[in-house]
Automatic annotation (TrEMBL):
It comes from Tindallia magadiensis. This is Riboflavin biosynthesis protein. NCBIfam families: PRK05627.1-3, PRK05627.1-5, ribF. The lineage of its organism: Bacteria, Bacillati, Bacillota, Clostridia, Peptostreptococcales. InterPro entries: FAD_synthase, Riboflavin_kinase, Riboflavin_kinase_bac, Riboflavin_kinase_bac/euk, Riboflavin_kinase_dom_sf, Rossmann-like_a/b/a_fold. Pathway: Cofactor biosynthesis; FAD biosynthesis; FAD from FMN: step 1/1; Cofactor biosynthesis; FMN biosynthesis; FMN from riboflavin (ATP route): step 1/1. GO terms for molecular function: ATP binding; FMN adenylyltransferase activity; riboflavin kinase activity. The keyword Acyltransferase does not apply. Signal peptide: none annotated. Gene3D superfamilies: HUPs (3.40.50.620), Riboflavin kinase-like (2.40.30.30). One of its GO terms (biological process) is riboflavin biosynthetic process.
């Protein structure tokens, strides 16, 4: 898959494209179904299956920049690239959402971005897709613009779960509550993180449970504080993990860290990237009076996580 961040990189690319439009945070079952339609229709028409999305969330440019406008990301860019690639997308255009772009009317967006830059012959979107200045364009306008500008529009039917449309915001809420089972059902795969490992304080090692501490991306979504059963992929191998998300209250730390004890193994992971797949939250964080009590609890955690994961076949990307 080719990833581009600047339209100059496609200016000389005359390949006609089929383009899916949207934010695609999480790449959940709704997004996956839309991308499947994109691939199938592109194959029929001999078009390059492509996705147009933004590298920065539109909320970064809009004035009222609060959490609901600028949500934390289920899939930061590096993870989005990996998943899109696995799903068979050929070209991923990570455009910058700027003041200039924000002020394009729907017809200017269709002409300048979709036709002139991307050479789009097919557009695939969901039925509630909006585009152009102040989200003033909808799918019926997109259809009319397609007739004038020479592209076909396909509306992907909504994917529902118990009569509710699957959406990134529903998944974000579940992860923030620690309800990983619901998030995973809506995602169609385990909620995952792909991050580098950094050095912690070395306390885990002293306790006999060394942990891989993640370097978090800005605005990366973090699950509710607690202890989770996870699987870890490093160098194409899969391990069971006991992951702690929280402020390590026993040690009065004040920053949330995500750290994983990779069960029954002893790996050197500093500066490597690991993939962490979340399955279930087993308990809340507890502030212990002494380290022995915490150690005893972690031994129990490892035991129950092994039991929980024993029949889970790895769902690794
Ligand atoms: C499975 C697991 C469960 C944990 N549970 C708690 C907990 O309940 N309370 C707590 O204060 N720290 C908990 N921790 C975090 C430890 O305090 C942390 O791993 C230790 O401080 C090591 O930090 P370091 O990697 O920065 O050295 C847990 C860690 C693991 C691996
Ligand atoms: N459940 C779904 N079924 C089918 N298509 C969907 C579904 N959810 C989103 N889409 C479509 O996928 C594309 C990307 O979706 P986008 O990420 O912009 O919205 P979303 O998933 O509804 O997220 P949010 O909850 O943040 O609004 C859009 O064209 C959108 O209409």
């Amino acid at each position: 898959m080719r990833v581009i961040e600047d339209y100059h990189q496609v200016l000389n690319d005359l390949n006609p494209k089929g383009v899916a439009l949207g934010n695609f945070d999480g790449i959940h079952r709704g997004h996956q179904s839309l991308l499947k339609i994109l691939k199938k229709e592109c194959a029929k028409r001999n078009l390059l299956p492509s996705v147009y999305t933004f590298q920065n969330h539109p909320g970064t440019i809009l004035k009222s920049c609060n959490r609901s406008v600028y949500p934390y990301k289920i899939t930061p860019i590096n993870l989005k690239e990996k998943i899109m690639d696995k799903l068979g997308v050929d070209l991923l255009f990570l455009d910058k959402f700027t003041q200039d772009l924000m002020h394009l009317s729907p017809s200017e967006f269709a002409k300048k971005i979709l036709v002139d830059q991307l050479k789009a012959k097919l557009i695939v979107v969901g039925e509630d897709f909006r585009f152009g200045y102040q989200a003033s364009g909808d799918v019926s306008l997109l259809n009319r613009l397609g007739e004038i500008l020479g592209f076909h529009v396909i509306i992907a039917p909504p994917v529902l779960e118990k009569d509710v449309k699957i959406s990134s915001s529903l998944i974000r809420n579940s992860i923030e509550k620690g309800d990983i089972e619901t998030a995973n059902r809506l995602l169609g795969r385990p909620f995952m993180m792909l991050n580098q490992v950094e050095k912690g304080f070395g306390r885990g090692k002293k306790m006999g449970f060394p942990t891989a501490n993640l370097v978090l991306e800005p605005y990366q979504l973090i699950p509710a504080e607690g202890v989770y059963a996870t699987q870890v992929q490093v160098d194409n191998k899969v391990y069971m993990g006991a992951t702690s998300v929280g402020k390590n209250p026993t040690f009065n730390a004040n920053e949330v860290t995500i750290e994983t004890y990779i069960i029954d193994s002893n790996l050197m992971l500093y500066e490597k990237s690991i993939e962490l797949y979340f399955y279930t939250k087993i308990r809340n964080q507890i502030s212990y009076d002494n380290i022995d009590a915490l150690k005893k609890q972690i031994i129990e955690d490892v035991h129950s996580i092994k039991h929980y994961l024993q029949n889970k076949s790895p769902m690794i990307l």
